Amino acid sequence: MDNRSKDFVFVPFCLMAQAFQAQGLVKYEWKGTIKPFLELLIENEINIVQMPCAESTFKNNLVRQPMGIKKYDTKEFNAHCEQLAYDVANQIETICRNGYRVLAIMGIEQSPSCCVNYIYTNKGMEKRMGLFMEKLYSKIKEYKIPIIGINRKHIRKSLEELKSVIEKNANS
Ligand code: SF4
């Protein structure tokens, strides 16, 4: 008997490894993993896929200062994000083609690479996806997978969104 779960959630690399965040950004109670999301996924027997971290893998820059989206928005960094998004989109397509389900993709709000809904710039809040997330979204939008942005200061809303996606899929 094969007892596997066929449900998946794709998470940003730093959700499971806060040390991959730029310097000075790990301000809240989560020092290593942002536990409530992982606990929820583990409790529900969901396969967790850790997406690559666009910023730390660009020039292998683990210990780095935070930079705004304007500085990241270069030809080289966009090409790097494009390659990573291509690889992740392939994984998602493989999962869906084989009859398994991707219940959600998670992002990190305010990240130049991984935000889903908004980022703060020196002109105030801008409504947009990050450079990696927009490329990933454009490749997999036909699958209509919910993309949930985590505000690390106030995680409740995105945690509730994830819970509701899991509950909805449990009944389908
Ligand atoms: S690029 Fe994405 S995965 Fe990497 S630290 Fe930023 S939000 Fe996390």
Count the DSSP helices.
6
How many strands, what sense, and barrel or not for the largest sheet?
4 strands, parallel
The CATH topology name reads Rossmann fold
> Which stretches are poorly predicted, pLDDT < 50 over at least 5 residues?
none
Strand percentage = 15-25%
Element order: H for helix, E for strand: EHEHHHEEEHEH
| Helix share, percent | 25-40%
User: What is the strand tally?
Assistant: 6
CATH secondary-structure class: Alpha Beta
User: What coarse outline follows from CA principal-axis ratios?
Assistant: globular
Q: What is the first-to-last residue Cα distance?
A: 23 Å
- Biggest sheet: strand arrangement: 2-1-3-6
In short:
This protein has 6 helices and 6 strands; from the N terminus they run βαβαααβββαβα. With 172 residues, it is of the alpha/beta class. Helix 4 packs parallel to helix 5 (131-140).
Describe the structure.
The chain is an alpha/beta fold. The protein contains 6 helices and 6 strands; from the N terminus they run E-H-E-H-H-H-E-E-E-H-E-H. It has a single domain (7-167), classed as 3-Layer(aba) Sandwich (Rossmann fold). The strands form 2 sheets. It has a 4-stranded parallel β-sheet, with helices on both faces. It has a two-stranded antiparallel sheet with strand order 4-5. Strand 4 and strand 5 (124-127) form a beta hairpin. Helix 4 runs parallel beside helix 5. The model has no long low-confidence stretch (mean pLDDT 96). The structure holds iron/sulfur cluster.
